[in-house]
Amino acid sequence: MALSKRDKMRKARLLKKHGLKGANNAKRTPKHPKKSHIVLAQEGSQIKLIRFGQQGKRVGSVSGTAGAPKKGESARMKAKRKSFKARHSKNIARGKMSAAYWADKVKW
Predict the structure, then answer these.
(1) Residue 61 DSSP one-character state
(2) 11 and 47 Cβ atoms separated by less than 8 Å
(3) Theoretical Cys-Cys bridge with 88: which of 15, 65, 100, 105, CB 3.0 to 4.6 Å?
């Protein structure tokens, strides 16, 4: 189903306001007080602005997120990734319209 004229205008306004390059394209928000990323999620004719990720958690640091798997990665980082995915599996499965899906895709 296509977006209505009103929804297209809303989408364009949100993209411009938040400096996003397009729908389903996550962006870092370093100055946001609590959330580290933002994305304008679109699934069919539904659009939703989603903020996700804990501000200050660095990818690959011991106290941060595990990030993408790397060759020679420590067992601790692998365990962190596995734990996150298990803990949030139901919300990740909800798809593009959930913050857990985007956190899994971008940060883990």
Answers:
(1) S
(2) yes
(3) 100
The helix (run of H) or strand (run of E) holding residue 8 is: helix 5-18
What is the Cα gyration radius of the chain?
A: 16
End-to-end CA distance of the chain: 31
Tokens 């304008």 belong to 40
**Beta partners for residue 28, in sequence order:** 37
Fill in the amino acid letter for 55.
Q
The percentage of residues in the chain with a pLDDT greater than 70, rounded to a whole number, is 98
**Per-residue pLDDT, 107:** 87
AA identity, residue 31: K
Residue 107, Cβ density class (10 Å: 0-12 exposed, 13-18 middle, ≥19 buried): buried
Element (H, E) at 36: strand 35-43
Token digits for 30? 């370093």
**Where along the chain do its domains lie?**
5-106
